[in-house]
Design brief:
By secondary structure, the protein is mainly alpha-helical. It has one domain. It is built from five helices and no strands. The radius of gyration is 19 Å and the shape is elongated.
């Protein structure tokens, strides 16, 4: 029983360890079909702030890709690039 303690500790530690967020994670965040824009923006922002050294361009492209199709998304693609800071 005491011999199993190190293995149990390591497996518990690994299971409770949080995955480090990267910009790839943002590409998985999509606006739901019935989700309001404000809800999506809030949810996207909550995830984006967890990513260290996230570049504005990567965040902007991930945000655009996550938006559902429509007039707003189209209007953003016509605008000049802006920072999300």
């Amino acid at each position: 029983m005491f011999q199993d303690l190190p293995n149990k500790f390591v497996s518990q530690f690994i299971a409770s360890r949080k995955e480090r967020m990267t910009s790839i994670h943002l590409s998985k965040i999509k606006q739901g079909p019935q989700e309001f824009l404000a809800e999506f923006v809030k949810r996207f922002h909550q995830e984006a702030v967890l990513i260290p050294d996230l570049g504005d361009r990567v965040a902007y492209i991930s945000f655009l890709n996550g938006l559902k199709s429509g007039h707003f998304k189209f209007s953003l693609t016509e605008e000049k690039e802006m920072t999300l800071a």
